[in-house]
Amino acid sequence: MIAEQINVDSAIATADDSQLVQVMLMLDGGHQCEIALMPDSPLLGELFQALTTEPEKSENKLFQIPIEEGNGALYFPSASLVAIATDPAVSLPIPEKPKPLETREDIEPDDPVQQLECQLNIYHKLEKLSPNYGKIERIPHVSGQEFLERFYIRNKPVIFTDLMDNWKALSLWNPQYFKEKYGHVTVGAQFNRESNEQYEWYREKHQKMVLFGEFVDQVLQGGETNDYYIGAYNGNFSREGFKRLLDDIELFPEYLTDTKDPHKTAFWFGPSGAITPLHFDILNTFLCQVYGRKRVRLISPNQKHLLSVYGKCYSNIDLENPNLERYPQLKDLDIMEITIGPGDVLFLPVGWWHQVRSLEVSISISYLNLAFENTFNF
Fold it and tell me: Is the pTM of this model over 0.90?
């Protein structure tokens, strides 16, 4: 038991009677003791604390109360204090009950978007440690298993230089050939693209049907422009009269399914200056260059959070004219730039951002029917 030493001067009021509080202490066994204290006396606070603290949580103290004008003292343990009466009434703050311990569910989780951005920054920092970072390999074809392990599973772009060696299209396809052999065929194309910065997002508004021969003339006579283009969304391989062009191209047996599916084979044709804006494909793709050259700018998926994304796979950023004032984060953007020409096949892994510009009148094919797992949720 601990003896609580109370200073007499602080316990016994010395002020005039108007300031005093008469305090009656009631103890076990019917004992009482009356003392006069100041309302702010530390002893009064100690007494009330002893009275209101639950016995199992309190430390049993021994109180020493000066009485008989300091000539005597009353000793009693705090556990024996039964009640306190004051005149006038003393208003004391009620102690707050301690809050229960928080469970895991009570803690607010971090912002998942912020956490993902942090994780992407880490991955990008790590991938830059590679001595080959920023370089896209140009190699002859490899076996399907090697392609799967070196590039497909690792989500790594690569350019194959000989996959199209057996394509008749490489020697046949050019604007003049298209006009002579297929000029009478009606095809879908996009027009008035330069009137709308979001021409790809609103592509249906820009599409109309036209004779292929007329479109070829426009491409040859119009010079460098992004105003019209035949792209993947025009679905021309599904049109009667146009399907015969599939006879001029070949599959890559170890990389693709064994069927020329017009719904998974895309045709691209347009003038120098035609641009496919910054986006990523929702599945793995082969871009096969038949005629002319294209510049492809590539951005790792680990930089997605820097690209002002909308519609899941589109970006508001124009790499032709980047707006650093509006998008200051672009100063931290790493861009890989390559040029592909006739006979080059670029493997574009799912999630890799790319913006493509035709450097000349250009003809390309895209294959979407890869032989490996190629369905992903976005």
Answer: no
